[in-house]
User: What shape does this take?
Amino acid sequence: MLPKNELRERIFSILREHDHRLTPQREAVVEVLIENSDAHLSAENIFMQTKHNYPDIGLATVYRTLELLESLGLVHKFEYGDGQSRYEVNQSADDHYHHHLICVKCGGIGEFKDDLLDEIEHAIAKETGFRVTDHCLRFFGICSECQAEPGENSDDD
Ligand SMILES: [Zn+2]
Ligand SMILES: [Zn+2]
Ligand SMILES: [Zn+2]
Assistant: This one.
């Protein structure tokens, strides 16, 4: 995981490289994404938090900024399963995306950083000639905290 200042510098320099101005609105959105780099925020969440530092910003601007950052590969967007997209900063241009562990009880989103798909990626390349450059995996289940709650192992609830 990159330190926040390096992450910020990487995002700003890629925006500049692609001739996108660093407006105060964009900067405010990037700041929220960096401060919540492991939180998997929805656009609404990002909007609410950005409003703190930049009260004039509108939801449409937040969406447009997120789309721009996503198109440049700076932000990952993933579907959570409830119709609400979540966003997180892409820590590295080279690594494959980490896996998400979604708890169907509390809605918590955990992460699993080891790829563990090398064998599958090689098998796909060998059989189809397709070169895997990334993937997006969601595992659904019950997190350890929810499993520890009383009643979780009984059927009578
Ligand atoms: Zn992989
Ligand atoms: Zn849970
Ligand atoms: Zn994540």
